[in-house]
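SEVERITY: medium
COMPONENT: batch folding queue
REPORTER: lab tech (J.R.)

DESCRIPTION
The queue accepted two submissions in a row. Attaching both inputs and their returned structure tokens so the on-call engineer can compare them side by side.

ATTACHMENT 1
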Amino acid sequence: MTDAFALPPRSLLYVPASNARALEKARGLAADMLIIDLEDSVKADAKVTARDAMRAALAAGYPGKRVAVRVNAHGHAEQASDLAALRDVACDAIVVPKVDAIEELAAPAALGKPLFAMIESPAAVYAARAIAAHGAVAGLIAGLNDLAIALKLPDVTDRAAMSLAIQTIILAARAEGKLAFDGVFNAIDDAPGFAVEAAEGRRLGFDGKTLIHPAQVDPCNAAFAPTLAEIAEAEAIIAAATGGAQRFHGRMIEDMHVAQARALLARIDK
């Protein structure tokens, strides 16, 4: 894990590279990481200008923010140009969409930056452990929109119908010591629905969530931040720990619970 991701981002906001206003507005948002997007949010006839805008935005900089760039997928006519445009710019990571096999990471990995691989198909779910094991991969992102369609779900918003796939993505990431991020919530006007889904994502074990609208940033940060009760519990565990197994508030704790408590407290001052 690189220093840039020692503390995992909670909120990862996609910013269309073709939208100058969005690129500028993103500087004032509280997102833990911006993902400047060259893929789905950019029309086919705007790919070249989007790359130029991405380079200009990164040259101007986003002080205090981690910034990634999502390139087009393996096999897409624009991926080579996207990667070439990233060779001499400063960004913290590259997001690679629609990764079905580890071999598809070769070209992005050649740039020497951390990769976030998007798991968006049944084949990708089965290959998730191998993808996570790639040395350049810092984490996996659950691409649930594409996955739901590939699975032929009648309701593409039905996360319960994808529960096995979602947990497999998290398991693959954790088995290789990598980060795992939840997919986007499409109903941008449904704030209560977003809050429920973000809370579920944290409960399932995701480190954070990808976002498609600035209004989702603050609720996402809140959902993935430790609660006051969790902070108090973690502090009490650390204070009470004497090493080895011991009784604590009617249950047994060990060194691993102390480590978990310290990791939770480390997220408070992100």
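ATTACHMENT 2
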Amino acid sequence: MSFKVDIHSHILPEIIPDFHNEFGYGDFIHLDHHKPNYANMIKGKSFFREIYCNCWDPKVRVSESDEKGVDVQVLSTVPVMFSYWAKPKDGARVARYINEDIAKTVNGQPNRFVGLGTLPLQDQELSLEELDYCIKDLGLSGIEIGTHVNNLNLSDPELFPIFKRAEELNAAIFVHPWDMMGFDKMEKYWLPWLVGMPAETSLAICSMIFGGVFEKLPNLRVAFAHGGGSFPITIGRIEHGFNVRPDLVAVDNPVNPREYIGRFWLDSILHDQNALKFVADLVGTEKICLGTDYPFPLGEAEPGELIEASSFDFNSKERMLGLNALEWLNLSRSQFD
């Protein structure tokens, strides 16, 4: 049976302090365990969504992983927890709480879980401090970040020292959409998740390319959620824009954006065989990693089903199901035996 590593798996602490009351403001999330095995996520003072215990209980996660044939889950927080809008010290307090909880879960079963931390990206110095703590003290393998930070895109110079430190620490980065653009214009039909999220991921990839992040930090290991969002299907348009209007596009990096194809990883949440083949032909099967978005419904209910049903050869499938993830994380297969 194939070794499966799910790089896109969200987790929350079972108990989250009521940061809204503690800080006196904001849409911070806490959990109301209103009935056995279920909790309501409360955003500020309002109901946000109901979740099942697989969102916080490691035993349930392992049991469901065994049932679905997943060997390792890479744990990252739910993006609504990023709290980039908060006052910096408050954001740092939230991040520290989440990171220590993830580390506790990983340390409890290191052969089943890998951890990614979160940072208070609204403040550079606090983020650098927390990044060091995540990697050096907690032993996490990297960080999860949003596709933008308030009004800053990932090309902003304020964020570059954080990427540089991540490269120095050999930390993996997972970029996940959040706070979707145009939210107020498309609340109906769940469009922020169906349209906004793919656009956010393309925004993040283009920002890192055009901002020169990949050019200046060639050893930075970054994976993007949801198969790269709308980026793969629009790379032709992106490259054409670079060629015909370099005065507008190539202002910070003169390198053709297509040169960076294969420099970053994408997860496999594409829900369509033709899409998977297209993306694999573009970036290479060695740059696609299994991702499920567990435990949420927009993800892949049967982990690896899309990859396993594809026409790729056995070795390519083995890479996409698990081996590519180990390369992105800079971990070895033997660590999970």
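NOTES FROM REPORTER
The longest strand covers residues 29-35.
No errors were logged for either attachment.
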